[in-house]
Backbone:
């Protein structure tokens, strides 16, 4: 019994170190994945708030009475609001309506809102807020580059 060399103990220490290293690597990877999710969620909340602000700003602008898309920009914030007037209603309501598009910059979240009345006196319609374009025609939701505004 006096001839023990500690080989088993050394093997157990090496196995414990390897298991700890694997656990630390897995935890680091999970943390990294979750950090990118949190960053994406934070970006979504910032863009959503900015798009809602741009939409509220666009509702209060004076819009000329023209057809097709027309856009206005608020440079310090980078907001853009675009209006397409003259949309027909499915229920044949006599009040004309327009579609307002707003975003907080290129390739950001966009919001849509139906407005009633005629330019320049537009008012938001009840239940008219959308997070998608409601127009059915192909390409009707594409804001032309020429209408991008100054």
Residues:
């Amino acid at each position: 019994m006096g001839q023990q060399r500690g080989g088993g103990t050394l093997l157990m220490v090496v196995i414990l170190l390897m298991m700890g290293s694997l656990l630390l690597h897995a935890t680091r990877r999970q943390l990294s994945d979750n950090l990118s999710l949190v960053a994406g969620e934070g970006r979504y909340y910032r863009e959503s708030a900015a798009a809602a602000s741009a939409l509220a700003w666009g509702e209060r602008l004076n819009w000329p009475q023209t057809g097709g898309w027309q856009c206005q920009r608020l440079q310090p914030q980078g907001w853009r609001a675009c209006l397409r007037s003259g949309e027909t209603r499915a229920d044949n309501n006599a009040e004309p309506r327009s579609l307002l598009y707003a975003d907080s910059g290129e390739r950001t979240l966009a919001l849509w809102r139906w407005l009633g009345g005629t330019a320049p006196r537009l008012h938001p319609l009840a239940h008219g807020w959308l997070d998608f374009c409601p127009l059915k025609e192909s390409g009707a939701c594409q804001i032309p580059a020429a209408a991008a505004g100054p």
